Amino acid sequence: MLIIMHPGASQEQVENVIAAIERQNLSSHIIQGVEQTVIGAVGDSHSVGREVFEILPGVAGVTRISQPYKLASRQFHPNNSVFPLDGFSVGGEEIAIIAGPCAVESRSQLLETAMAIREAGANALRGGVFKPRTSPYVFQGLGEEGLEYLAEARELTGMPVVAEVMSIAQVELMIKYVDVLQIGARNMQNFSLLRAIGETHIPILLKRGMSATIEELLMASEYILSGGNSRVMLCERGIRTFETATRNTTDINAIPVLKSLTHLPVILDPSHSTGLSEYVASVARAGVAAGADGLIIEVHNDPANSLSDGRQSLTPEKFAILVKQVKAVAEAVERRLAPLVH
Amino acid sequence: MMIIMKPGSTQVEVEHVIEHIRENGLTPHLSIGEDHTVIGAVGDTHAVSTAVFEVLDGVESVIRISQPYKLASRQFHPKNSVFPLDGFTIGGKEIAIIAGPCSVESREQLLETAQAVRAAGAHALRGGVFKPRTSPYAFQGLGEEGLELVVEARELTGMPVVVEITSITQLELMVKYVDVIQIGARNMQNFALLSAIGKTQTPVLLKRGMSATIEELLMASEYILSGGNQRVMLCERGIRTFETATRNTTDINAIPVLKLLTHLPVILDPSHSTGHADYVTAIARAAIAAGADGLIVEVHPDPAHALSDGRQSLKPEKFAELVKQVGQIAEVVGRKLVPIAKAQEL
Question: How much is the average pLDDT of B281-304?
């Protein structure tokens, strides 16, 4: 960490900062400039907040040099994290495709969609049963009844299932039914929920908050990893910008940036990151071309009559075309799609 | 256009709006709901501003239904615009790669880079001579001397050259020397400059402003097209967001959105849209996978000593690797790179 003193900071203020550095078990290095003094705080500073120094008199600014996350860092774990996901692995050479409806709406809707996406080439099934909807007046999900349908769909298709958890109270129930717990964008910084799932051993799909920086996403993953759960996948799902032509802006830069900063698998959700079904396949191809380890795609057997996210859901036929195109791109970047379950 | 009246707006206010609709050569359609009265203004509204109705008494809001641009629209011109660029075409099946230094710094630097990018597979050469630098104290470009060097590089390599214009006063000089005039992000809404370029016949590479929406980019292109210059390429170069890990955020969505809304060729600049050489190749691949018609990439023989944008410039060897990878992606999306021999036989 670098502590930059105000021009004209007193000797006493400098000494005060040095004392604070030493209290954090770091050592200090003074660089005396022409106008300003800079003090380096050297040592393992990932658990030291910048505020400790920012509040001291005479301090103009504090710049963090090393990353504030550790377990998520590629420095700490140079090789990619590769872990099995009920029939295939994620984070290695294979690219996994998770697909399914935004929400589980009924038994027939879920089973029909599950069969169709498996046929089209999906590796895992998604389906929300607890839905974080912007309006409290719209469909909120089927709850435990939906979990039973998900379990039935898994039995029927052999695909592992991914469902979103919204509160600590749901964790125990969900672990019984699902293979991967999703933390949605709105809960990326629900720290007590992150801690609670960090104590489980179920794989996690952690979505980036819509106004979260890449570093904040990595810090959120650190909450889960530091609890002992090392199977975390990160998911870019678009960020909030001034652009209105799409629901969100796909931060495609986040893919190579995350692949360079962390060993965790990186997934792209082109359904939410565009919000419009006509752009999903193009952005899915871009995600894999940029180095993503997988995709999560919304597919509905009847988008026009879907209870949520119909505008961004693909029909099974369109999804089958997407899988074919993504497969070709995967091969062009020397990857391959994960084998299908039988 | 739909004009939504406030709840409780009076009959007189509604009639006043209807009168204004007629004055603008449009036909009114009245629909009276339980809370709100909505008045449709039907006809060719692209030249009518929403502000005309927004200021009237009793009006709550105005929603534009049809696009405010026309010549740039795919509705107006359903097929892709394909035009020749000194030896090859842009906007068709072929993907073009423009490469070169951020700035022309010296004869030696430019000629060395030009030959290196040509050998690596570039189809056109970029190089700035009038540089819009954030700081007035930083290197501002070589000016006309740089243009002469750019011409020498074209003669040496056979590649057409792309150079940014930063003021109308440079226009006459630029038209004489360069094959493509670039409008930089900071000048995307320099309307006087856009109108002036619209009156020339030199192809234009129009970059998206860093805080401009896709619609604003298309409106900027409309300024050039409506002047009579049809050869406009649009360029996504990253937008300003809250993310700090990269210089800008590549709006990859803009590629398929633009390809759907307009017939104009769409180019991506992964050098500016990431700002880091480490990420340029991955984003270049992504752009072609998403449907871009070309790339513009910053290459410098010695990035560490570049006078501008060194952090985002690729070395010629890295650029050659990018071209190879982009070629593989192009093939799987049913496209191909402009054949090098074709770009060279000039």
Answer: 97
* B58 falls within a domain: yes
- Cβ–Cβ of B290/A325 closer than 8 Å? no
Q: Residue B299: how many CB atoms within 10 A of its CB?
A: 29
Distance CA A217, CA A199 (A): 19
Quick check: is B211 in a domain? Answer: yes
A245–B213 CB contact, under 8 Å: yes
CATH topology of domain A83-337: TIM Barrel (3.20.20)
Domain carrying residue B292: 83-344
Whether the CB-CB separation of A266 and A293 falls below 8 Å is answered with yes
Separation of alpha carbons B60 and B41, rounded Å: 15
List the one residue out of B315, B307, B342 whose CA is nearest residue B99: B315
Residue A169 is predicted with a pLDDT of 95
Confidence of residue B109 (pLDDT cuts 50, 70, 90): very high
All residues of chain B having their beta carbon less than 8 Å from the beta carbon of residue A271 are: none
Tell me the chain A residues in contact with residue B292 when contact means C-beta distances shorter than 8 Å: none
Which residues sit opposite A266 in a β-bridge?
A234
Flag whether pLDDT at B346 surpasses 80.
no
Are β-strands B59-63 and B83-84 bridged in parallel, bridged antiparallel, or unpaired?
unpaired
CA gap B118, B340 in Å, rounded:
8
Strand spans (E) along chain B: 2-5, 27-32, 37-42, 59-63, 83-84, 89-90, 94-100, 124-126, 161-165, 180-183, 204-207, 232-236, 266-268, 294-298, 336-337
Residue A44: pLDDT over 90: no
Q: Say if residue B104 is in the same domain as residue B11.
A: no
Whole-number pLDDT of residue A81: 96
Decide if pLDDT at A92 tops 60. Answer: yes
B93 and B25 belong to one structural domain: no
C-alpha span between A101 and A215 (Å, rounded): 30
Q: Tell me the angle at which helices B254-261 and B277-290 cross, rounded to the nearest 10 degrees.
A: 40
What architecture does CATH give domain A2-63?
2-Layer Sandwich (3.30)
Q: Is the pLDDT of residue A199 over 90?
A: yes
On whether any CB of chain B is under 8 Å from the CB of A225, the answer is: no
pLDDT of B341 higher than 80: no
What stretch of H or E contains A99? strand A94-100
Asked if A258 and B250 touch (Cβ cutoff 8 Å), the reply is no
CA B231 to CA B203: how far, in whole Å?
5
Question: Model confidence at B136, in pLDDT bands (50, 70, 90)?
Answer: confident
Using CB atoms and an 8 Å cut-off, which of residues 240-279 of chain A contact chain B? 241-246, 249-257, 259-260, 273-274, 278-279
Number of domains in chain B: 2
**CATH number where B24 lies:** 3.30.70.1140
Nearest CA in chain B to A261: B245
**Residue contact A289–B282, C-beta within 8 A:** yes
